Amino acid sequence: MHIGSTFNHRYVKSNPREVENATWMLTVFHCFGQYFCLHFEAFQLGVAPVYMAFLRFMGDEHEARQYCYSLEVGLNGRKLTWEGIPRSIRDSHRKVRDSHDGLIIQRNMALFFSGSDRKELKLRVTGRIWKEQQNLDAGLYIPSSCS
């Protein structure tokens, strides 16, 4: 289990062509007194092999809407970023995956972000979780980070 609102995970596979429909070990986070789960998997999107990362909240959908998260992959001054609301753990991972509600990276782009010779997957996914706090005086939402 990881404690804190920021994270940095590396997903490595010596032969990225063998990872169709593969799921890496799930990572659980504790932040704001709540639990979150980071998913990372490979699957076919139509005929294209892709990797997908997304965050789920261990609670119901209403509670999940109180939080936001961002995921990022990048290398050499280039990056892809996803920002969203975590899905409830009560939604199956297949439902989340099939709705494309997360960071989707095509295999050739994932290999580009892996560096070196593009023959090995070495993908670093960084992220952050924050809680939306409503400022009733101004009618605004102010993001805050977990300490």
From TrEMBL:
Q: Which InterPro entries does the annotation name? A: 7-in-absentia-prot_TRAF-dom, E3_ubiquitin-ligase_SINA, TRAF-like
Q: Which Gene3D superfamilies match?
A: Apoptosis, Tumor Necrosis Factor Receptor Associated Protein 2, Chain A
Report the protein name in the record: Seven-in-absentia protein TRAF-like domain-containing protein
Question: What would be one Gene Ontology cellular-component term for the protein?
Answer: cytoplasm
Provide this UniProt record's keywords sorted from A to Z. Answer: Metal-binding, Zinc, Zinc-finger
Its Gene Ontology molecular function terms?
A: ubiquitin protein ligase activity; zinc ion binding
Q: Which family does it belong to?
A: Belongs to the SINA (Seven in absentia) family.
Q: Which organism is it from?
A: Zingiber officinale (Ginger)
Q: Where is the Seven-in-absentia protein TRAF-like domain?
A: 29-126
- Domain of life where this protein originates: Eukaryota
Q: Name one GO biological process term.
A: ubiquitin-dependent protein catabolic process
